[in-house]
Amino acid sequence: MSFVENLARDKGYKKLYIHARNTAIGFYEKFGFKINGNEFEEINIPHYIMEKKIR
After folding, report:
1. Distance between CA atoms of residues 52 and 8, nearest Å
2. CATH number at residue 41
3. Cβ(13)–Cβ(55) under 8 Å?
4. Distance (Å, whole) CA 52 – CA 11
5. What are the tens digits of pLDDT across the range 29-54?
6. pTM of the entire structure?
7. What's the CA angle centered on 32, arms 50 and 15, to 5 degrees?
8. Which range of residues forms the domain containing residue 33?
9. 11: pLDDT strictly greater than 90
């Protein structure tokens, strides 16, 4: 995760967005991601959009 954050930061990005399965939410929360929006289905699996501001 830190590699992705560093790469995004080096390219000037301010936020990262992911589509997280319900079962992975806790994993991404440990890295500072927060849920943004309502649950949706992707490939017949419940997901949430999660985001993290990077500096």
Report:
1. 11
2. 3.40.630.30
3. no
4. 16
5. 999 999 999 999 999 999 999 999 99
6. 0.84
7. 55
8. 2-53
9. yes
Cβ atoms of residues 35 and 21 within 8 Å: no
CA atoms within 13 Å, Cβ hemisphere of 1: 12
How far apart are the C-alpha atoms of 46 and 29, rounded to whole Å? Answer: 17
Q: Give the number of domains in the chain.
A: 1
The residue type at 30: K
What is the 3 state secondary structure string of the chain?
Answer: CHHHHHHHHHCCCCEEEEEEEHHHHHHHHCCCCEECCCCEEECCEEEEEEEEECC
Contacts of 34 (CB under 8 A, 6+ apart): 50, 51, 52
